[in-house]
Design goal:
The protein is α/β, with parallel strands linked by helices. It has helices at residues 13-21, 23-31, 47-62, 71-89, 98-110, 172-178, 183-194, 229-253, 273-283, 288-295, and strands spanning 3-5, 8-12, 116-127, 142-152, 158-166, 199-208, 220-226.
Length: 303
């Protein structure tokens, strides 16, 4: 649900994406506050937590490149943070270490992927109020999102840099297909351009998570994605119907939880396994809240 932050109503990009995929998942996550236990635990066995920590490693490396990317300096900054985590936790997966950091730095130079970093962790906002009726409970609502970084290539062009971790291939062809129609990157391009950043598109840097200390496959891969005006216009149209739907649902449509049939069929909707069980339970007349509360912690006010 939108939240009031420093006097302004905001909705996060991730919440918009969840609603776009499935209204039921949006209800469970952002209205009821359901959050699977694995998302709440901080430890090296939690892939979500590891991905967040790798973003911090990348952030430390990128902060050294505001004038020019120097692989040795970026490497030391990233490895320094990795060592802090190793001291704290005692053990990290094989992929989360200096070897991956070295491969990432080498790929940046060999690409060349970018020449220097413009900004790191760029928080942006986009006014959504025109998509909502005058009686909305969220006047002046803004969509907010955080770009991992903005970088300049060798020609001076500005790009969004997005860090990913994956268990799949980081081959450039695979990555290009995977992120060709990615709504997250479209949203980031929209946020950047509406805030005066003339971005060409996004550079996706993917790290392959592998348990092998010596892996024969590539550990790091990069691809570039541009977002033409047509794609950005579609993104705006999506935002319009999503916010109108959120406004309607938050206004009481969920009093008797909506569970409207998904146009593509119930089992084809986007619900992670845990959510499928809850959706199925409701359809069978079971006590959904009792099941949810017995299996998951409830986060006050949603997430």
């Amino acid at each position: 649900m939108p939240s009031l932050v420093d006097g302004r109503w905001e909705v996060r990009r991730s919440e918009v994406a969840n609603y776009r995929r499935c209204e039921r998942a949006w209800l469970l996550l952002h209205d009821w506050g359901l959050r699977p236990p694995e998302e709440l635990s901080a430890n090296p066995e939690n892939n979500l937590w590891l991905g967040q920590q790798w973003h911090k490693v990348m952030e430390q490396a990128m902060l050294t490149a505001t004038d020019q990317f120097r692989p040795d300096v970026a490497y030391e900054a990233g490895v320094s943070y990795i060592r802090q985590l190793q001291d704290e936790w005692g053990h990290l997966p094989a992929w989360f270490g200096p070897r991956t950091m070295a491969a990432w730095c080498k790929a940046i130079v060999d690409g060349p992927i970018f020449q220097r970093v413009e900004e790191v962790e760029v928080k942006l906002a986009y006014d959504l109020s025109r998509f909502l009726p005058d009686d909305t409970p969220w006047p002046g609502l803004h969509l907010v999102g955080t770009l991992d970084a903005l970088v300049r290539d060798q020609y001076g062009n500005l790009w969004i840099m997005d860090h990913k971790t994956t268990s799949a291939s980081v081959d450039v062809t695979h990555l290009a297909k995977l992120y060709a129609l990615n709504d997250q990157l479209s949203c980031y391009s929209l946020l950047a351009q509406r805030n005066g950043y003339d971005v060409m598109g996004s550079i996706i840097g993917a790290i392959r998570k592998t348990d092998a200390a010596k892996s024969t496959g590539s550990l790091v891969g990069f691809t570039q994605q541009t977002r033409p005006v047509t794609a950005l216009n579609l993104c705006v149209k999506d935002l319009k119907w999503i916010m109108q739907g959120v406004h309607q649902d938050a206004g009481g449509a969920f009093d008797d939880p909506i569970w409207r049939p998904n146009p593509t069929g119930f089992m084809e909707c986007w619900c992670p396994g845990n959510f499928e069980r809850i959706c199925e339970a409701h359809l069978q007349g079971e006590d959904v809240r009792a099941i949810m509360e017995s299996r998951f912690p409830i986060v006050e006010g949603g997430i």
